Fold these 2 entries.
Entry 1:
Amino acid sequence: WLMRECVGEMKIEEVRKRLGLLSERHDVDVKGGEIRRTSSRFCFGVEHGDYNGTELFGVGTDRFIWMAHKATDSTRFRLVSENFEDDGVIEIDLDNIPPPQSPEYAHSWARFPLGVLYVLQRENYPITRGMNAALVANIPGGGMSRSASLTLNLLLSIMKINNIPIGDSLEEQMKIIDLAQAVETDYIGAPVGNLDQIMIFFAKENMGTHFKPETNSLEYVALGDDAPEFAIVSLDTGTDRPGLEKSTYKTRRKECDDLAALINREFGLKNLAAVKTEEQLKKVLARFEVDMPDHCERLKYIFAAQQRFERMIDAWKRGDIETLGSIFREDGWGLRDEYSISGRELETMCDIVRTVPGVLGERMLGGGDKGASGCIVLADGIDAVRHAVEVAYPRAHPKYKDKYAVHSCRVVDGVVLLPGL
């Protein structure tokens, strides 16, 4: 299937140059260290299924965070990001980590390295060496899991320079997922699930990742040989969501958790994903829909997405991209109309590309509100998608006319360690 480089994709030579200049501008010495690259992700399903207990399927994609880093002889951390260069150098004293959700860091990317160090210390991992780091990223500001990518990059790098081993078994590697999730839930205050962390950490080039929470098992799924040339395309709206803890996501998560607690007490079903049959759905709706109509709309989306999930995996295995795209589109309708998690700019992108011949499916991506949408498109339709967006999107949202982007994604490894500067 299509492995096309997008216009404007950053090459590693350019990245290395930018990392070097960034570190020099801010006197953050990273020479002689390493560069860790962590990917974005593209979820085929079930979006918002992780915290509701569903199975998950997705791929790693080539929007990245690159972090040049080097161990120091002290326990101080000095980090600078090109994306937030106005923040200057983030300086962290290991013995003076502020408590979770400290107001002074609520709008700073510093909350991520602080959160990683907080969680590692809380879990009694020995941190004896500090780190200098310079970061460059091109992941959109929502929809492709920038926060999970950053957290994993920091976590793995700090663990490595402190000689903290990571086991080879799935059980041991899932501890990394738990730690990364805890950074966002326990320190930052974002009630995230584990979809993003799983899809990035375990991502393999040219493979889909299928995670089953009931058995805590993971399987790599190859795309069927009969697949036509196609691409998954990121439609970056140019908008930037400030954080899931400040978004509609937090509200939706609470609605689902509240309904799950009620159906567990009433029907013995532990989460929304446990509502698997039409009979179970009818019973739950009969009991709660009058008093909790919005909550039940969220359940309807989860139920329908689960019904589509097996067909989606089967379509991937057979290389039936038309069916894959159709299911992706149906999920988009459900996310927009039942889960009510999309946003104006996200739906504008979807409306534009839905009219383009060769586009098989489109929907918003990720946590919602802002960030990126995505589409599945046959190879000969990619240029038409780009042209349609270039014409229509700036007219609909002139505020973002210089910020939006169309990116034809490659499916890549989630975590790669590269030679340093």
Entry 2:
Amino acid sequence: MLIVGFMLRNVPGINIAGDIDPKWSSVLRNIALTVILIRAGLGLDGPALKKLSKSVLLLSFLPCLAEAASVGLASHFILGFPWLWAFLLGFVQGAVSPAVLVPFMLNLQETRLGTKQGIPTLLIAASSLDDVLAISGFSVLLSVIFSQGAALWFNILQGPLEMLMGLTYGIFIGFIFWYLPHRRHDDLSTLRFLFLLCGGLVGVFGSKALGFSGAGALGALTAAFVAGHRWRAPGWDHEMVKAAQVFAYLWTFCQPVLFGLIGAEVVLANVHMETVGLALAVMFVTILVRMAVTVLAVSFAGLTLKERLFVAIAWLPKATVQAALGSLALDAAREIKAAPDIILLGEKVVTIAVLLILITAPVGAVAIAFSAPRLLQKDDSDVSVKPDANKISKDERSLEMLERNPKTAETVKMIDVAD
């Protein structure tokens, strides 16, 4: 779908995607991203996440910072970018794409590849934090370069604030979904699906409206994880499975929309051909740096060398953040009517963002699909999702018996009145 979207935007005579309103494109992409993040949150493995919490933080920060730094150095000395613009480009390139990564991780969970080591959970959890860091670093440098808008100190604090807001919102909403809707509601699965979807959409679009766009994705992921944690309790897990299945069905419609619109964001007319050669050199060198640091970041996660190599490969695709941030510097430069050399720098950033999407998204997707069965171990343990009757408490069994036998329930009420 990436290629189809790209063709619909760039092939002469069928430039259909060019007529799509950018605002509506952004809305549809955010809806589709919310669906896949909620589905991912429901699939997160709590024990594995607790075990790998340190590795999640290392994987979130180290590769992104290393790539941003290496891109900054390479862009300054190879492309001739000023220091601030070079590191701005570094944070544009440093973010991984949840839109490409998460669907593959969910497929790994279904096929049980790498699940014993918690690899899908590790990558899903770290991807949202990685994006928050990249967006925050970009925002700080953009503010410094153009010296307008929010104060510098606020932009520096925005990253930690977004993480705190996303986690707080997700935990709060997820906790509410433990009790609403009521467990014995006739349409429980449908209502749980609607509550989670609405909660995720409110988080994503609300945070964007408030200027904390990185918080929404983290909030949607956290809310689904917290709610799913309770639904996994004995006697509840079948409801969690039903809700997850609904999101899986919805994703079959959202997936082509998301990837098609991301592909349509690539505009070849914005590519400066004289920049392409050196930009590709910078890209490949810095991606190798990212892969090496990624392998080091998960060295203490108890993974084999093959599994660490797979994590490095999975950490390559770039699309959603690059599509969102790529043109912001150019837009800001044009808005203040900056000098031609500043406009040119903005256009070069757009060119490199386009190249990143065009190369790393499809190549990364193919590399993940090809390497997963060859580098990961399959978990052959029994993963039945049926509730264990022996683990259901005596009170729960009594409640279910009362629900099935109305006469017994009336007898209990008469006893209560007599007491």
